[in-house]
Amino acid sequence: LLMWLKYRGLFLHEILRLEGRCNKAGAQCCSECDCPTPEYRCRDCLGSELYCSACILSAHVRHPLHQLEKWNGNYFEQISLKTMGLRIQLGHPTGQRCLTPRRAFNDDFVVVDSHGIHEVSLDFCDCATAESHFQQLLQISWFPSTTSDPKTAVTFRVLEQYHLLSFESKVSAYEFYHSLRRMHILQ
Fold it and tell me: Least buried of 22, 30, 47, 81, by fewest C-beta within 10 Å?
């Protein structure tokens, strides 16, 4: 305990610094492109760098379930990649667009992951040689809720997490889902 007491001020300072713009108010530029107005950061990526909207979107094409925050002038508030315009394209290599994309039902797709519940913009490949929609989801390790026009999926990671917790701590599916839902609300 005594070892930590002498550093409590430093720990508190660093934790509070992370709640704001990390003392970067004077040096305002995007960590990637030097844009003068960075407003975004990612809670899941390493570091606390700030990015402009174009760079944060570009960096998250391969991480569509990361949790972003936007500086509103006083504090960081949660913002989704869907709100920022990120579309997930299935059936093609990451970053490559389909010539005949088909939006998920009502352009409203929900993914349950170990970090919470995410609403995403999702395009299925609808090319002549395209796999079924549920197969396209399985190929990115998302388990679809149905085989007929899916609009919800759970990641394999969250299925493995539930599997482990159900054996080790006997958590019910109901309790597990509501803890994920609550994580989503609190973020």
Answer: 47
Q: What is the gyration radius of the CA atoms in the chain, in angstroms?
A: 20
Q: What are the structure tokens assigned to 176, written together? A: 């597990």
CA distance 12 to 72: 23
With contact defined as beta carbons under 8 Å apart, do 75 and 20 qualify? yes
Q: Which of 62, 77, 74, 32 is nearest to 50 (CA)?
A: 32
**Would you list the DSSP string of 40-64?**
EEESSSSS---B-HHHHHHHTTT-T
**Which pair of tokens denotes residue 25?**
């108010």
Tell me: the pLDDT tens digits for 45-87?
Answer: 988 889 999 999 999 999 999 999 999 988 899 999 999 999 9
| pTM (2 d.p.) | 0.83
Q: DSSP labels for 109-123?
A: EEEEETTEEEEEEEE
